[in-house]
Amino acid sequence: MKRMEEMILKEGKILPGGVLKVGSFLNQQVDTAFMKEIGEEIADLYKEDGVTKILTIESSGIPIAISAGFAMGVPVVYAKKNKSSNVSGDVYTTPVKSFTHGDTNNVVVAKEFLKPEEKILIVDDFLAHGSALTGLISIVEESGAALAGCVAAIEKGFQMGGDRLRASGYRVDSLAIVDEMTDDGITFREQ
Ligand code: G4P
To answer: What is the CATH number of the domain that holds 126?
Structure first.
């Protein structure tokens, strides 16, 4: 998505450790007009796929998933992060380690919101090492629902999570893929 690349170039700030700050439009302040375009782009990518529900993870995946949900006319479920290892009840859960923050959360989705007859699209803001998407995929697989694919607003290609998931046979679409970030600039993958 050309507009995503333009927004990253205009607004993004490169921090040490391979972190790209996009808090001015994507994950703290939200540019609502741009968010609408993101939702429409995701809807267009999956218009032939019979998606019945979108699954994301709190917190920064939620605005993107809601926008896509509006555009596709489907509900959105978001996985909650729970630091306690003591999760019980009628839930799917899987540990997700954050490389960026160095901690692990148990990601939790109530079983009543994922049924085997559904076709799920997973949406998130960043795809870095792929741990969040891998956790969400395992929850969808455990539920017996079909997985249409995964969408990330921004993939950091140099952290390899996206390519690992594609190599495992999953459909992964990213609206922009950053292959390199240096003080001299940002290189996007042609797609
Ligand atoms: P992974 O899920 O792809 O393996 O990514 P990783 O563990 O590295 O990322 C952990 C968290 O940091 C995720 O948010 C992810 O969206 C975010 N993140 C990763 N790389 C970047 C980056 O370059 N810039 C920004 N702004 N965020 C990044 P989270 O912990 O789930 O937090 P949130 O969704 O509540 O914001």
So the answer is: 3.40.50.2020
